[in-house]
């Protein structure tokens, strides 16, 4: 059979039942959205906890190109999920889920994991500087200019990554995270949020009190502003509590999923 014909046949046979989130379950589908300087593998341990308890899970690869653009991407990625959805965002991914969830009737809850929950018109840069404590700017490495002239890709200096991003993660693992980090555009961090779904959808928050990317004061302030149903503060937790404390993160997600 011709290669193109084989591919067409394979696509035709690949039904939604084969996609995570479309399996038969009486529980909501959990959709996980990573943030800047990370990738979907940052949710691995959280996924293991959730799947053990019967939750369908989909970890979306966040493009990290811009809030509206990334929000549109997440919406397209989950548009065929008919079941109730809990959208979970880490860091910049919080801005993305707050945009993506707007107008999605089957999103029943939002969970912000050390994440931004911006008001319309606020950017990640605005919120990072609202209260003192972020040391991210001084930890960034050499930026990479984009070929299309749309700004630069930002990375954290690998030497500074463990202390800045993942201080409570074993050093060997943090170094691997530094080497495999995904960049975000400077424009994405400065883009004003076009929507604020947390104003309409019940929200839950969890963060560490030793976060160096987003000041803990800012994280608590955003949770309070959003009338968080429950806010968990992890003592000594870094910016990546979903890696260092996956059980606590998964537990909060499950509470959001089971809330009435």
From TrEMBL:
Question: Where does this protein come from, organism-wise?
Answer: Ensifer canadensis
User: What are the AB hydrolase-1 domain coordinates in residue numbering?
Assistant: 30-251
Q: Know the name of this protein?
A: Alpha/beta fold hydrolase
Keywords tagged on the record: Hydrolase, Signal
Keyword Signal recorded: yes
Where does the record locate the signal sequence feature?
1-20
Q: Name one Pfam family in it.
A: Abhydrolase_6
The record's listing under InterPro entries reads: AB_hydrolase_1 (IPR000073), AB_hydrolase_fold (IPR029058), Sec-Metab_Biosynth_Hydrolase (IPR052897)
- Quote one Gene Ontology molecular function term: hydrolase activity
